[in-house]
Amino acid sequence: MATKSLFSMLINDRPGNFSEQVVYEDELVVAFLDKFPAVPGHTLVVPREQVEKIHELSPETASALGLALAKVAAKVVEATGTNQYNVLVNNGADSGQEIPHVHFHIIPRTAGDYSQSWAKSIESTRTAANPKPAKLPDNGEFDGDLKTLRDKIRG
User: Fold this and answer.
1) Residue 77 DSSP code
2) Which SUPFAM superfamilies does the entry link to (predicted)?
3) Pick the catalytic residue: 55, 101, 103, 105?
């Protein structure tokens, strides 16, 4: 097997407080809060199987990933109070994929935070009423709003 991806390392080794980020897992898929969220509730859904692109997934993992996406999206909707969200995936470096391991972003959306062009990015829509969330903590247990949101997504 190729070198362990960052996601494989996180899923298998659980460094620091990574377990605090986990909101869902089964035999084939793990979902966790993004360490650098675009908005509160930004969640990654990642197969345990390490491949770079969706078409490289085994049929069993692809099926499990689809089911997990629906389950986690429902939990994100419930936890954030919005029923609108993006499900995004990049396949390969030229598409913007930074970690060569299939992963989906579930990004909750609210009125006024949407840009007509994804190229403008969420960052260009920041306002005082819609500030960028802080990076998730590197150590220790989650507390406050972050813990509450994480626990709601966990269900």
Assistant:
1) H
2) HIT-like
3) 103
Asked whether residue 32 is domain-assigned, the answer is yes
Q: Which long-range contacts (CB under 8 A, 24 or more apart) does 8-17 make?
A: 8/48, 8/50, 8/101, 11/46, 11/48, 16/138, 16/139, 17/137, 17/138, 17/139, 17/140, 17/141, 17/142
Indicate the average pLDDT of the chain.
90
For the chain, give percent helix, strand, coil, nearest 5: 35, 15, 45
Question: Which structural domain range is residue 65 located in?
Answer: 6-114+135-154
Question: Which amino acid is present at 98?
Answer: E
103 is known as an active-site residue:
yes
3-state secondary structure of 114: coil
Span 78-123, pLDDT tens digits: 999 999 999 999 999 988 899 999 999 999 998 877 655 543 555 6
Q: Residue 8: how many CA atoms within 13 Å on its side-chain side? A: 13
Res 129 pLDDT > 80: no
Residues 31, 25 contacting (CB under 8 angstroms): yes
In three-state secondary structure terms, 104 is: strand
